[in-house]
């Protein structure tokens, strides 16, 4: 027997069926391959014969039989899901299985436990279960319908059924009501109204369910369509707002997220309520959806159900968030394979986001049809007045489009066929007039995408209009997002179409590539308008002076357009930019500027975050790449836009400060302002400045404390910080302390600074990093200095956690105390790190092969070691321990985290202050670092110091070594 379910499944797979078949009852469906119902009934009957009147034993035996039937049936449904891949079939099977279990349980209870309750109540399914679909871990939502004035035994029978279901391990949501109560409550409560809309009879007194259906249609639904639709769409918008109002979050919620199953349910509720249909297939007959759009609906629903069922089976719970932890396994279960430039999981997620986009298209199409239907249906004088008040108005300068209540609409249904350029013009006219889009206009855009061909792509007017949209001083990101959602952007720029819905499998990127690019344009527009000055004042100051806005906007839109290719995306993106620039109407000079910006778009960020900005070679190398002030300004603005558009919380004041420092240092060099005075003279001048500023100290203290520092310190630390450090050292000396910490915080730079004064020791940074890891602090930067009396003065910058300064200072003081406790030996480092990591799950979702590079060309004085690997608690401590064990002296460190990936850079010398040039030694350093990064056992970690209690001769030796390297 072919049922409604089978028809829907065949339509989903593209089989053109007769869509006018009547809806069939659930009980006609036969999935006996997952449960032999007759055998189950016989088994239950045998229990009665065996246990007789022993109710407790009978109940226990019944529970065991039903539980086994449920588990076996679900396991079979799981096997069939892997065989046929259909999510809808799996959801139907589990729903059918649940129906049979509840029916058998009901028959058993009214047949053997409460014999007089047969046909005294009905059991109906509501919620998703009411739609005949059930995920493996879903709640079972039931509505028990009672006759007026139900007997006590009716309540007891229902209670018996519920307790058995609960004991079987089901999460059962339930309500017990009469038909009158259902009608009364559904008039005032939209949630109850929706539940009853989806009600489906399972077993018991069927006439109660039929009475409720009839009365609900007549007394509740009639003439309340607009009210229900408005409530459901408002509910949907609020749900999207809470979930992060984009369908392009890289860890989407399959049930509640934008473009997920709940959005499809909303379409179903609205259709059922307004059009009185029981199956989406009937919307084709009514002309609401085309046959192709209905196929799209079914395929989207089937795919989302497949993903959800696999998630529930994999996690053994009702997991609705498609997190990184399970994306790989779901991709494998669904049969995705890698392709050049894209891993299997990235291909799967791209498909997911394209389906979510299809759901958005279907929502728009349905809303357009509803609005049109509603306008036609309004009767009498009210309808005449409404149509008069809402009639469309002409838009000045446009004959193709009209305004309809603040929305742009088509003046004629054939506008796009007559002139395909109007597919771009629609968005331009909407932008310059500040209009939203009529759903019908967007529906016609979606249905006219085939008109966007090579001829239109090369059309001069179409490209002029597009560039005007992109560089608009109003809200270019809003219009670009509408173009993208309608499918226009990806058709008009095929290279953009390739990255639509593409995700990058990393915790750093929060959005799909297309969404990231549109958000980057949004940030640029914000800067262009002079907003967010408090976030990044320098770029706001530079933007009005940018000579070529067009080139900058094009570069921001295109900077990641070549993601997902085998070739480096910056180089491949530059090739795309060279091709698209002339098409958009840019001059050769503008095109080359865009090409350079796209190719170099990561450079400034990487230099600022992973290089020592106090090292002159860093600045000269960067200036050689940039070559002009105009390029420097534009690259800075592009870098800010790119970073802020990655996701919430990625941009912070510390990154802003690093970029500003790099900008100012490079600007000075490009303007010819680098000092030619020797380092020795500049260091002497800095020491004299410190001596002079300590004018209220005794002559002895001024001399003692101003001579404590070597060249690297005097040349890189601002005078105000030198004064703070000097006061801190003197205060520590007067208190007779061997070690001390000082903290301060800066909300604008989003950084907290901890300064540590202690006896010098080769593993000092190891212990400090370990103590910070144990305290849950992320180190962003470390500067290591040695005083002339053999002490270490280390400054650690950690990422700020609290917005309130008082709260952050308390946190920093706690971290400082942890550092002191570990340095003094009061706490053992291996133990405090073990405590921190004990309850943390190892990140199995990501694989980042450990990488180590060593360079002697990035600095004039130091060997630069850069490591890249998967982040974990205590990693920095372990890496610095290896460097110390290899007799390397760390001068400074840059710690940069990109989601799950860490890039740490260390400026090092050997014990006599020289670069590491010996090939064997370099090979050994790389091998040891890779081993510890990969988490391999290393005897070094067994010898991790519990504290710094260094003998005096070690301190003197280290002081001599530092003095020699600084000379």
Protein architecture, described:
The protein has 967 residues and is an alpha+beta fold. Helices cover 57% and strands 11% of the residues. Strands 9-10-12-11-15-16-14-13 form an 8-stranded antiparallel beta sheet, with helices on both faces. The chain is built from 44 helices and 16 strands. The radius of gyration is 35 Å and the shape is globular. Helix 4 crosses helix 6 (152-167) and helix 4 crosses helix 13 (291-315). The longest helix is centred in the middle third of the chain and has 34 residues, at 344-377. Residues 14-28, 378-389 and 948-967 have low confidence and may be disordered.
Beta-strand percentage range: 5-15%
**Main sheet: strand order:** 9-10-12-11-15-16-14-13
Low-confidence stretches: 14-28, 378-389, 948-967
| Biggest sheet overview | 8 strands, antiparallel
| Count of extended strands | 16
Please state the CA-atom Rg, rounded to the nearest Å.
Answer: 35 Å
Which geometry do the CA atoms define? Answer: globular
Structural category is alpha+beta
Helix content: 55-70%
Average pLDDT confidence is 84
> What is the count of helical runs?
44
State the end-to-end CA separation.
Answer: 92 Å
């Amino acid at each position: 027997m072919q049922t409604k379910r089978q028809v829907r499944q065949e339509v989903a797979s593209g089989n053109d069926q007769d869509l006018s078949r009547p809806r069939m009852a659930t009980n006609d469906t036969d999935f006996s391959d997952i449960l032999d119902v007759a055998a189950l009934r016989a088994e239950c009957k045998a229990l009665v014969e065996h246990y007789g009147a022993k109710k407790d034993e009978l109940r226990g035996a019944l529970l065991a039989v039903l539980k086994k039937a449920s588990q076996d049936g679900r396991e079979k449904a799981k096997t069939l899901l892997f065989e046929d891949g259909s999510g809808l079939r799996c959801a139907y099977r589990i729903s059918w299985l649940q129906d049979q279990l509840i029916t058998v349980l009901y028959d058993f209870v009214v047949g053997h436990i409460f014999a007089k309750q047969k046909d005294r109540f009905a059991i109906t399914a509501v919620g998703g279960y009411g739609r005949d679909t059930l995920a493996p871990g879903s709640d079972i939502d039931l509505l028990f319908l009672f006759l007026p004035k139900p007997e006590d035994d009716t309540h007891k029978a229902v209670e018996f059924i519920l307790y058995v279901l609960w004991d079987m391990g089901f999460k059962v949501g339930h309500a017990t009501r009469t038909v009158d109560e259902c009608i009364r409550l559904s008039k005032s409560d939209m949630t109850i109204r929706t539940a009853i809309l989806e009600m489906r009879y399972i077993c018991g007194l069927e006439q109660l369910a039929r009475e409720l259906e009839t009365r609900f249609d007549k007394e509740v639904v009639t003439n309340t369509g607009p009210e229900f639709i408005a409530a459901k769409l408002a509910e949907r918008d609020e749900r999207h707002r809470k979930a992060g109002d984009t369908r392009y979050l890289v860890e989407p919620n399959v049930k509640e997220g934008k473009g997920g199953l709940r959005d499809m349910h909303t379409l179903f509720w609205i259709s059922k309520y307004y059009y009185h249909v029981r199956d989406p297939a009937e919307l084709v007959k009514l002309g609401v959806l085309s046959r192709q759009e209905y196929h799209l609906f079914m395929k989207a629903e089937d795919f989302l159900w497949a993903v959800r069922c696999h998630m529930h089976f994999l996690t053994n719970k009702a997991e609705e968030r498609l997190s990184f932890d399970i994306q790989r396994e779901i991709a494998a279960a669904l049969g995705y394979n890698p392709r050049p430039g894209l891993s299997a999981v990235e291909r799967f997620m791209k498909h997911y986001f394209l389906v979510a986009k299809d759901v958005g298209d279907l929502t728009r199409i349905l809303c357009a049809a509803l609005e049109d239907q509603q306008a036609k249906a309004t009767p009498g004088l009210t309808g005449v007045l409404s149509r008069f008040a809402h009639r469309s108005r002409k838009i000045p300068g446009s004959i193709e489009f009209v305004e309809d209540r603040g929305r742009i609409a088509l003046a004629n249904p054939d506008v796009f066929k007559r002139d395909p350029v109007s597919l771009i013009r629609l968005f331009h006219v909407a932008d310059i007039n500040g209009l939203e889009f009529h759903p019908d206009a967007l529906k016609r855009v979606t249905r006219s995408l085939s008109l966007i061909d090579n001829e239109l792509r090369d059309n001069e007017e179409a490209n002029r209009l597009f560039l005007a949209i992109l560089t608009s001083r109003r809200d270019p990101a809003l219009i670009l997002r509408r173009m993208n959602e309608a499918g226009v952007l990806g058709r008009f720029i095929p290279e953009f179409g390739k990255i639509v819905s593409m995700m990058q499998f990393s915790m750093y990127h929060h959005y799909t590539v297309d969404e990231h690019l549109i958000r980057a344009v949004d940030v640029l527009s914000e800067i262009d308008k002079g907003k967010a000055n408090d976030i990044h004042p320098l770029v706001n100051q530079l933007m009005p002076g940018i000579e070529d806005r067009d080139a900058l906007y094009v570069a921001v839109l295109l900077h990641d357009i070549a993601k997902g290719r085998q070739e480096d995306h910056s180089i491949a993106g530059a090739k795309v930019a060279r091709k698209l620039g002339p098409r958009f109407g840019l001059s050769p000079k503008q095109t080359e500027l865009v090409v350079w910006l796209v190719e170099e778009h990561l450079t400034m960020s990487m230099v600022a975050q992973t290089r020592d900005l106090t090292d002159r070679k860093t600045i000269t190398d960067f200036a050689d790449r940039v070559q002009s002030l105009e390029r420097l300004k534009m690259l800075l603005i592009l870098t800010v836009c790119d970073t802020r558009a990655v996701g919430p919380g990625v941009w912070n004041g510390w990154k802003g400060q690093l970029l500003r420092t790099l900008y100012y240092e490079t600007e000075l060099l490009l303007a010819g302002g680098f000092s030619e005075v020797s380092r020795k003279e500049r260091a002497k001048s800095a020491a004299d400045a410190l001596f002079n500023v300590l004018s209220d100290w005794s002559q002895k203290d001024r001399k003692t404390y101003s001579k404590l520092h070597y060249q690297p310190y005097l040349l890189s630390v601002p005078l105000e910080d030198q004064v703070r450090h000097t006061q801190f050292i003197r205060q520590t000396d007067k208190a007779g302390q061997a070690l001390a910490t000082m903290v301060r915080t800066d909300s604008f730079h989003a950084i907290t600074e901890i300064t540590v004064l202690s006896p010098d020791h080769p593993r000092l940074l190891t212990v400090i990093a370990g103590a910070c890891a144990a305290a849950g602090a992320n180190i962003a930067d470390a500067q290591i200095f040695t005083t002339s009396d053999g002490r270490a003065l280390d400054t650690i910058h950690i990422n700020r956690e609290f917005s309130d300064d008082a709260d952050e200072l308390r946190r920093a003081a706690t971290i400082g105390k942890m550092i002191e406790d570990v340095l003094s030996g009061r706490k053992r480092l291996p133990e405090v790190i073990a405590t921190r990591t004990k309850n943390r799950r190892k990140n199995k979702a990501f694989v980042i092969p450990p990488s180590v590079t060593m360079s002697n060309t990035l600095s004039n004085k130091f060997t630069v070691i850069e490591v890249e690997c998967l982040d974990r608690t205590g990693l920095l401590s372990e890496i610095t321990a290896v460097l110390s064990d290899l007799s390397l002296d760390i001068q400074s460190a840059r710690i940069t985290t990109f989601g799950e990936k860490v890039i740490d850079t260390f400026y090092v010398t050997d014990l006599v202050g020289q670069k590491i040039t010996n090939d064997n030694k370099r090979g050994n350093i790389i091998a040891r670092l890779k081993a510890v990064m990969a988490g391999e056992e290393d005897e070094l970690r067994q010898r991790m110091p519990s504290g710094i209690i260094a003998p005096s001769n070690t301190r003197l030796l280290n002081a001599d070594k530092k003095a020699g390297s600084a000379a």
